[in-house]
Design goal:
Helix 1 runs parallel beside helix 7 (about 150-180), helix 4 (about 75-90) crosses helix 6 and helix 7 (about 150-180) runs antiparallel to helix 8 (about 195-230). With about 290 residues, the chain is α+β, with helices and mostly antiparallel strands. A four-stranded mixed β-sheet has the order 1-2-4-3, sandwiched between helices. Helix content is about 65%, strand content about 5%. It has one domain.
């Protein structure tokens, strides 16, 4: 589940910085009475922030977990890992991703990147050491399917649209609230510190609501990725891998990355879960014809 929370977390940080820049540059004041101009500005910053996050996803993923890209295999296990990823990538019709290992006791893997042909697949040492090769192969198929389905690009588009409306609505509602609190005074300056604080608060609240939508998409795409893992590996191996994962403890991955991995969504409220419960994923695989 590492991939999505990394993306969402990076997005939130970028959007916060961009919002401060917007206020410091006075762009709020310029567009205060021009809703069309405000929407255009929010679209530029909202979509821009999302795709900046996507462009940085591979670099941030590597640094966040200390993943080391395998360039020359140092062991038979690394040779097998490269060979299996290459086999799945060929069958899925995508370019060979970078393959990386990171040292962590939990069983996890993730894939990220800007395009189908320039992706990264990273696997924890805990997963390699705890699962048999059929199970690992199914997990790798799951991650390759994320890449083949273009999930990261789709997520970036969804997040960009949501960013746009979060910024736009926060400023429109913020202007109304600020005007009401100031007694309806017509302020061409676009509001002062009160307006800024109101907008930041609203952007946080609307951002939480937007996150619910992103997490819904994340859960939906996990079922598709599981089906892909079953196809590239085998259904029994994918089910077995999920059953093994169901007995693990909370992931040690950074929260920003947890939505892009393979593990369960944990005990977080359903609306904010990046992954469906493993029991539901296993049931969906068993029900598939």
């Amino acid at each position: 589940m590492l991939r999505i929370l990394l993306f969402v977390g990076t997005n939130l940080a970028i959007m916060l910085v961009l919002s401060v820049v917007v206020s410091l540059l006075g762009l709020d004041r310029v567009t205060h009475t021009n809703l069309q101009g405000l929407l255009v500005m929010c679209a530029v910053f909202g979509m821009g922030g999302s795709f900046i996050s996507l462009a940085l996803s591979k670099t941030l993923a590597k640094h966040s977990v200390g993943a080391q890209v395998i360039t020359e295999p140092r062991s038979e296990a690394e040779r097998w890992l490269l060979s299996t990823v290459a086999h799945h990538a060929q069958n899925a019709g995508i370019g060979m991703p970078e393959v990386a290992l990171y040292d962590a006791p939990d069983m996890n893997a993730f894939a990220t990147g800007m395009s189908r042909d320039h992706a990264l697949v990273a696997v924890s040492t805990g997963l390699l050491n705890s699962m048999n090769r059929d199970e690992v192969s199914a997990v790798l198929g799951h991650e390759i399917t994320h890449v083949a389905n273009g999930d990261m690009v789709t997520l970036a588009l969804i997040q960009g649209v949501l960013n746009t409306f979060v910024m736009f609505l926060a400023r429109v509602v913020g202007g109304i609230v600020d005007s009401a609190l100031s007694g309806g005074r017509d302020d061409d300056r676009g509001g002062g510190i009160g307006y800024f604080l109101i907008v930041m608060l609203l952007q946080f609240v609307f951002g939480l609501l937007a996150t619910i939508i992103v997490m819904w998409f994340s859960r939906w795409r996990e079922f598709r990725a599981d089906a892909g893992g079953a196809k590239l590996g085998s259904r029994d191996s994918m089910i077995s891998a999920l059953q093994t994962l169901s007995g693990t403890h909370e992931s040690t991955l950074p929260k920003a990355f947890q939505a892009f991995g393979i593990a369960d969504g944990g005990a977080v409220s359903r609306l904010f879960m990046s992954h469906p419960p493993i029991s539901e994923r296993i049931a969906a695989l068993r029900a598939a014809s």
